[in-house]
User: Fold these one by one.
Assistant:
Number 1:
Amino acid sequence: MNDIRVGGWTELQELLFADSWNEELGLYRSNFAFRGCADVDEDLSTSLAKLGGGASVLEDHLLRNFRKYATGDAVPVDSEWNWLALGQHHGLPTRLLDWTYSPYVALHFVTMQPDRFNHDGVVWMVDYVRAHELVPPEFRSELEQEGANVFTTEMLAGVAEKIVELSRGSERFVLFVEPPSFDERIVNQYALFSLMSSPDASLDEWLGKHEDLARRLVIPAELKWEIRDKLDQAGINERVLFPGLDGLTRWVTRYYAPRPTRRPS
């Protein structure tokens, strides 16, 4: 994996937006999905994998009972993909992993826990356009037909009605999926999910075989306070990313908490 240790705020901006110029469009449009973690040692394990046990069996039980007891109109269209996305959004252990189109939203998740500021953080960057060049032909065809770079849940349902159908072949692959706009949180976080073709497949292992598709920006612990202050000034905070009283409370609590005396370097 291509690890780059960031030297400062200015270098961080260059690295986050590197390779984002799209000559065909004449615009800056990054093909990278971003994921921020407070600890550099955190891997890309899904909540389903962290639950332990047989992932395939557990996934079926979890999703079936979530659909059984959730409100019937909780999803815009009754499909496994929409229920999976909704479950992930509300904390159900799934094979999905949270990503964002926004590098600054990713930085928020690196710096949202002041008690972890003594640890280096990390921003994962994965080129989802090139990753989708490696999916089976029927999935590539769906993207080409829609003129899209990422999947929606409706597009996935058009190729595979059931999640289990992703495991039909022997080759493992990753998909990037935009969830329906269930609420403001998904919209404000510019959210998308990664999805491995098998519930027990590891994105870390897959990226290990395709290292040219990804990079990791290591955020030094000593840089976290500066990033946090500048994100707050730019309006990237819990109040915006988690609309509602809970997000407001989290923002106020963090923003006004005492911090160590520090001086700019």
Number 2:
Amino acid sequence: MDITDNIARVQERIAGACRVSGRRPEDVRLVAITKTVSAERIRAAYEAGLRDFGENRVQEAQAKRPALSQLKATWHMVGHLQTNKARTARELFHWVHSVDSLRLAQKIDQAAVGNEDRLRVLLEVNLGEETTKSGARETEVFQLSEEVSKLGTIELRGLMVIPPLSENPEEARPYFRRLRELARQIAARNLPNVSMQELSMGMSQDFEVAIEEGATMVRIGTAIFGHRT
């Protein structure tokens, strides 16, 4: 498996989805998901041109990062984040996609050191209301966004969703469309430190549909690195 070829194919598919939806490929950020992927293969993806990498677990990121310290990469936390890992996450990541409660947001805010920049975060929304998945309920998002906007070291930049798993990418479309509408409604409130510029949605099986519905970040693992062992 050639990671360089895989990346090229994914980028071609992103460009194709952008053509369909009248968007520019440069407006969609490709975040390579590196769960269980070795530091060596992450470096190969970096050398092939990728600059954004996402991890699901703080501990795994912590173990890999020393070997990747020379990379000028942007690191994203995309998995469920426990409150007791908030401080470490703040040290390791430039983005957190998975803020799903005020308590977690407060812990991240309290972990700021000195005069560092505001941490860019997204609210994860559990639109499928699946008990096995994290994420705030749709009914909670408006209040949560208002409370997060008051925190001094966090900048709320958008929303994230993981739709119910399906073999048919089209079944994810209503969830992507609903997330876009939620972001529009939150943006209309003009809250401080809230921009709603980012929609993190779409993975290897459905990212083209997500782009058609407005995704600005797609989280791709399998299509780049192959199936996890």
